[in-house]
Amino acid sequence: MKKAIVGFFAGMLVFAIMAWQVGGTLMVQEYPSPFGLEETAARIQANIQEAGWDLSGLRSPSNTIRALGATVPNVLLVEACNPDYSKPLLQDGKTRILSILMPCTITIYEKEDGKVYIGLMNSGLMGRLFGPMVTEVMQKVAVDQQKFITFDASKPAPPLVRNKPGGGGGTGKGGLQDLGGC
């Protein structure tokens, strides 16, 4: 009996250490892009709009850091929202805290190898942590996110949507936030 208890706790310890080591890599996903930074962002923006989502922001945290005198590689954050998905989460007081995950943010960044990468939150896995309604919504988000980063290289690159008059966003046709800020 004593060996079984010791074995159980040893197994739990090994599991906890493994979860701690790989947990972060499960929560985010990284994909190489075949295009440059701005073209990748522009193609993602176009795919977001084609999927019926609203563009709500484009930010460059690297520009903010550079303004403070540091040297960092380029990073762009494309922000999008789908009111059909966010509405049930915001209506329920138990899930309203998940507004911290809104808007859906996709990062496009350069690495030291000179290549461009796309980073996404693992929405499908994240949703499972918060119950059935959130799981259902986040599974849909995960499917759409894969559409956002699937590119048709035979199509010409669309223009990058930057700041538009009117500011804000949320209409799909309205403006975006300025490139800046963290």
What does this structure look like?
This protein is of the alpha+beta class and 182 residues long. The protein has a domain of 121 residues: TATA-Binding Protein. Helix content is 43%, strand content 17%. The chain is built from 6 helices and 5 strands. The protein has a 5-stranded antiparallel beta sheet with strand order 1-5-4-3-2. Strand 4 and strand 5 form a beta hairpin. The radius of gyration is 19 Å and the shape is globular. About 8% of the residues have low confidence.
Count of alpha and pi helical runs? 6
- Rough shape? globular
The main β sheet shows up as: 5 strands, antiparallel
Low-pLDDT segments, ≥5 res: 165-178
CATH topology value of the domain at 28-148: TATA-Binding Protein
SSE pattern, N- to C-terminal = HEHEHEHEEHH
Number of strands: 5
Distance between the termini: 55 Å
CATH secondary-structure class of the domain at 28-148: Alpha Beta
Structural class: alpha+beta
Mean pLDDT value: 84
Q: What's the gyration radius in Å? A: 19 Å
By CATH, the superfamily of the domain at 28-148 comes out as TT1751-like domain
Query: Helicity level, as a percent range?
Result: 40-55%
Side-by-side strand order of the widest sheet: 1-5-4-3-2
The CATH architecture of the domain at 28-148 can be named as 2-Layer Sandwich
Strand coverage percent: 15-25%
